[in-house]
Hypoxic response protein 1 (Streptomyces longispororuber), 139 residues
Amino acid sequence: MTTAGDIMHSGAHWIPAHETLDRAAQLMRQLDVGALPISDENERLCGILTDRDIVVRCVAMGHDPSQVTAGELAQGTPRWIAADADVDTVLEEMRGHQIRRLPVIENKRLVGMISEADLAQHLSEEQLASWCESVYAKS
């Protein structure tokens, strides 16, 4: 059985909720990623910040990214998956919430992220096509 831990990109990094968006953008550039999980003071997942969030919800709204924190953009209930969850469960979680990135948690710690690129490397063409259809479908 293939698990979330098998297909994830390991070495994911948190961005603390108190960190500013300009620092988040710098970290994204340094790590060559488009999203960072947001952690609270107890290193618990409280959201995910994307490069698009920074542009659309901060810069385009006329806000200063050096004054807005990652936590201020955290919305809703963050979704995650256990490292030992099977791939079908991963796909169900992503489909059910129409999300493209999913943090992987083991022993209450962030151990990786699953993105579209990870799915493309590990799924059959049929599985990938089905996932894309459901995630990109208009709700």
